[in-house]
């Protein structure tokens, strides 16, 4: 078997070592364009988990690496001179040049052919090779030559970064943040051998331009950066090695192989350095590729299929986390405004993989500091109170905790009237400890319903039916209940979802919207609203508001999301008007703001109002970030107390990127740019995620939807898991008929948590500290 490896980086070398070890008669040749002792960059980083993998795969190279690396268990976050240390991280740094030399040595020991200063322009010379491994890096010429076959996509990110070294000794991996008149800079730093440390400086493109940097003027960069990080460098010089400012390319490929060519390392996929080393990713993929060759040998198709099977999902998960982390650094100026401990916590949890509980297992002292700061700011005497169970006040309405029941359609009303189902549905969640209930979308008129099973609040009979629900909740729980009031617009008159997804009723009523744009090809084209229509609709919203107050609701949320009537004015995808209500975001806002303003004037001044918006349409040419900020600011100025930040469902052809806590970045944008409280939602499933979001400052309240549908006692279980008020269970507000269960639930959930934490600690990779 003959294998040609183009690119003598760590990935290509490590693949060659593992494959040659397992298949000694395999002919493997590595072609590297540079000299054997050339190296660009300074240090590389490996985790304890990766080192454990190296140990099992090739103990000889593991020993060589381990004897030359600098190990640290600590991570520091520093900002403008303040610093906090977080332990229990387990990483090592190694000189890239040293790593290459060690791997070259192992290749020669195993009989791999190494050819240096061998630039490969034409791979046809390797036509007799069974496999050609394209390990030629981020600017892979082979990948570019066959880009269509691989389905290559390269997205250049906006932030600027530059890779340098220094003689400054460091005893921990450290993020140094500095605020300047131009904006925020960060240095990602770590020691990789005695007397040498890596310093990657990063800032936004806007800040970079304001500061007057040049891409290739290394001396000018050294002068400016050395001044910004004067205290951190402490008199030590910066060292360059082709250190030019760059923008990070996110590289993906739909296929990792074409004919007998296979991609490895950065040629295949890149992951931003803030989440981990590209070298680590390349070497882990080298293991999978070697395993696949060893297993299937000359069955090249099977080799490549197995390689992708082993690594595709893992690489995509890492890339997603890296992209989330990258986005955090692109918004440093937004996060830097937080108090220091909250800011440090945000740094540590930026990619969503690390949570509050993860950190508590690593280093209990750091989360305690974060909690103490949060509770101090919230005015709580108990500095260790779980964030989810801290009270929150909106106008005169005090919520006992920060967990919200998100609006979820029940499709169970008859003629707009709620009934026993709704009493049970909302009542059980209230008794279950929810801080705030938001009802399903409640229509202002018969033609404002989404389905025939949607509730309304346009007449007195409906008011009385809703009053039965609110009375029960207020009498039997400490929960507050808000009503979401809306009009379905172009998304109305559809069948129940179990009868067909967004399919129109047989006798559908006429639809209206901002513009005559149907939601999908099954539904009718809505009529474009006239001024008279707007006046009527506004009046109906006001009547619904007055009725909501009569029905005893503690709060109103205005439905302006998911492409319904008011939302159809806000998105450029659904508002194509050329009059005063179309075009600019200011024009698109006019009607929704008019409705809200008149509702606010008609509502009890002591009760809060929320607006739910869609902060992203997940479709080309949809609502922009600037639009979202303008929309949120306009509602804030009109008297909104909180914004419920949702996304999507504006158009049928949306392509959302869904995952854990996936909508929190949009809530973060609104909360920390417009400076208004927010509610967030979206695949939030446990108390740890809720606490992490709140401590991060990404939202003030956290809404759960499907999580609550089959678990009305989610909050009670979470309180027991957190041992919230364990010394004063009577203060939980549990109805007396249920209160006796706490003596069973609290020990059970507490024991369950201890068992889970023990398992997590047992699964933690062993330390490789020398």
TrEMBL record:
InterPro entries: Aldolase_TIM, FAD/NAD-bd_sf, OxRdtase_FMN_N, YqjM-like. It holds the Pfam family Oxidored_FMN. Residues 389-719 form the NADH:flavin oxidoreductase/NADH oxidase N-terminal domain. Gene3D superfamilies: 3.30.9.20, Aldolase class I (3.20.20.70), FAD/NAD(P)-binding domain (3.50.50.60). Signal peptide: none annotated. PANTHER family: BLR3436 PROTEIN, NADPH DEHYDROGENASE C23G7.10C-RELATED. This is Bifunctional salicylyl-CoA 5-hydroxylase/oxidoreductase. It comes from Flavobacterium rhizophilum.
